[in-house]
Each structure stands twice: as structure tokens, then as C-alpha cells.
Amino acid sequence: MQRTRTVLVTGGAGGIGRGVAAAFSAAGDTVVIADRDAEGVTRTAKELGVHGLALDITDTAAITRELDALQAEFGPVEVLVNNAGLLTVHGALLDLPGSDLDTILRTNVVGTFLMTQHVARRMVDAGIAGVIVNMSSIGGRQPTPGMGGYESSKAAVDALTRWAAIELAAHNIRVNAVAPGPVLTEMLATGMPEGSPQRRAWEDRIPLKRLAAVDDVAAAAVFLAGESAAHITGTSLPVDGGQLLT
């Protein structure tokens, strides 16, 4: 039986982050969700029966302050899930403003780097054999027109995962990523309802003929953070119904 750990999930106010937090909580871990949406994170934490904090993952001072407070209350973070990211800014190569790309990279890459760095430092200082799970995307390996900014950021997350894994292995800290295809979050279901041409177009790209459920992604994160994955580090695990095969 796996012991209780302190798990921090960023971007936990909704969508995949909420599902990941619920899965770790169901496994018996002490879960803290962080999100820059202060109202949303407070509401979600109450609904899930976990702990919540408002945090902008691109703000170094805020990261330091909140991690210090979290550690004082719950002890060092033992599992970090870097789920927070920006998905809504898109544009074709010839049209995307440079400032928009900068915003995407600042959140998805720099934010993930900062959280990894600050949490890993505390793991090393405490002598913790911790785990970090990043949220990537198969888009980092399979391009979709108009989504290249986001997909480039996720390719960078995969590279960051390997970088962190090779350097932190000496401290017995494992670092992996989950790389979903399209995930049936509430937002996606609203924008692409069942039976819509857009939904069918995505499903036709997937050999298993369905979009991933949030629980599919959450299960992969829990697996990579658990004892069953004790000899896995530096990998990016697709949860895509076989889409990368096409």
C-alpha cells in the first residue's frame, strides 16, 4: 500500500487539473491545487475536499512565498504535477503575433521550468525521492495547422522533462510527462458537442475512435507518480488512443 504523500497540482481549478487532483485524493494523498484563478481554485478545493492556493506559475516571488507556506503546513512537496498551461492562444505561422508566442512560452515553458526548479530544490534539500509529472501533448510530435505555438511549447516541455530527469536522477527524483491527445474536458465538450463535424473530424484521426476522458489522463499521471513506475524517468507517455500511429 502506497503511503500518503503531499501532492501539488498546478492549474487545478478545472479541466484536467481538477481530474488529476481528484485521482490523487482518491488514492489517499494530501492534495494541494494551485491556480491563478483565485475564486476558481477556492471553489474546486472545497468541492474536492482538498487544499487550494492562488498562484501565478510565472511569478518567481509568488512561487517562493507559496511553497514556503505550503511546506510549513504540509511538509515538502513529494509529487508535483505541472498541469497549468495556456491552450487558448492560437494562430497560423504567418499570422501569430510574436507577443502571443511569447505569452504561450512564458506560461507553458517558463512556468513549468520555474515550478520544477523550485520544487526540486526543496526535494533535494529535504532528501526526498520525489516525482515530477509534466503535462505535455502529442502536439509536440504531431503538428496541427494553426496550433504550432502551443505545440512548440509542448515540444519544449518534453525536452524540459528529459533535461530534469537526467539531472535529478542522482537525487532519486523521477521526472516524466503525460502527453494527451484531445481530451474531453467540459470546455471542449461545449465547443465540440457530440455528433458535431468538428468532433467527428478529431475522432476520425484516432484509431480508438474516441477522445480521451479526463480520467484517462489523470490515471496516467497517478501511474507515473506511483511505485509501479519506479524505474521510469525521462519519458513522455502518450494518452491519445493511438493518434500518433496515424
UniProtKB/TrEMBL annotation:
<comment type="similarity">
    <text>Belongs to the short-chain dehydrogenases/reductases (SDR) family.</text>
</comment>
<dbReference type="GO" id="GO:0047936">
    <property type="term" value="F:glucose 1-dehydrogenase [NAD(P)+] activity"/>
</dbReference>
<keyword id="KW-0520">NAD</keyword>
<dbReference type="InterPro" id="IPR036291">
    <property type="entry name" value="NAD(P)-bd_dom_sf"/>
</dbReference>
<dbReference type="InterPro" id="IPR002347">
    <property type="entry name" value="SDR_fam"/>
</dbReference>
<keyword id="KW-0560">Oxidoreductase</keyword>
<dbReference type="Pfam" id="PF13561">
    <property type="entry name" value="adh_short_C2"/>
</dbReference>
<dbReference type="InterPro" id="IPR057326">
    <property type="entry name" value="KR_dom"/>
</dbReference>
<protein>
    <submittedName>
        <fullName>Glucose 1-dehydrogenase</fullName>
        <ecNumber>1.1.1.47</ecNumber>
    </submittedName>
</protein>
<feature type="domain" description="Ketoreductase">
    <location>
        <begin position="5"/>
        <end position="176"/>
    </location>
</feature>
